[in-house]
Task: inverse folding
């Protein structure tokens, strides 16, 4: 039987969809509350998705695993994916703290690729959380991946993907060095913009106190 026609697979994908809806709703509440309390929205935009059938299949194949529902649940940790894009570096860590403060999610794993970028220069903050879905007779926890990054990081990640898509492993060293240099320039831009933001913020606070 085709896996897409398998009831176990269809049920799993239904739960992933439930988890995404729950995740989107809870984050919307948390961010709205933050805006109300602070008079400031740290989020530029949010994108969400459920990984496609082909993308899930390809990921399992790259791991050398059979395409089964059990392998999807155990080994594909980003079937549910949500990306939060912020203006400034400080906003990224504000969002991380907001998510961690929620009593709705259980943080399973986290990776700070901003302070510790990948070899490719990729920067982002990743949180893998367990999202509760309340079914008729039980509550289950479904894993989701949340990526939090700045506008500059998001721009570079998109460009890097297009530049690197289907490149062989043995790309010229000159190309690797050039792309790593561009990634460093993006990180430097984020630091410069953060510095400007802090100057502007201090100036506004000074005006308010006068």
Result:
């Amino acid at each position: 039987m085709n896996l897409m026609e398998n009831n176990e697979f269809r049920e799993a994908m239904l739960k992933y969809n439930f988890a995404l809806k729950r995740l989107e709703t809870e984050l919307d509440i948390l961010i709205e509350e933050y805006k109300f309390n602070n008079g400031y929205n740290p989020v530029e935009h949010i994108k969400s998705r459920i990984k496609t059938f082909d993308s899930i299949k390809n990921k399992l194949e790259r791991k050398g695993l059979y395409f089964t529902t059990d392998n999807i649940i155990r080994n594909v940790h980003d079937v549910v994916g949500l990306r939060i894009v912020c203006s400034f570096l400080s906003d990224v860590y504000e969002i991380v703290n907001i998510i961690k403060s929620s009593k709705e999610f259980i943080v399973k794993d986290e990776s700070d690729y901003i302070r510790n970028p990948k070899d490719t220069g990729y920067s982002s903050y990743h949180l893998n959380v367990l999202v509760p879905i309340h079914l008729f007779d039980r509550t289950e926890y479904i894993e989701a991946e949340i990526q939090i990054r700045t506008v500059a990081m998001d721009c570079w990640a998109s460009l890097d993907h297009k530049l690197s898509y289907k490149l062989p492993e043995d790309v010229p060293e000159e190309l690797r060095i050039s792309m790593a240099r561009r990634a460093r320039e993006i990180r430097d831009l984020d630091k410069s913009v953060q510095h400007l933001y802090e100057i502007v913020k201090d100036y506004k606070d000074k005006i308010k106190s006068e």
In short: Strands lie at 43-50, 80-86, 106-112, 125-134, 139-150. The longest helix spans residues 173-209. The mean pLDDT is 90.
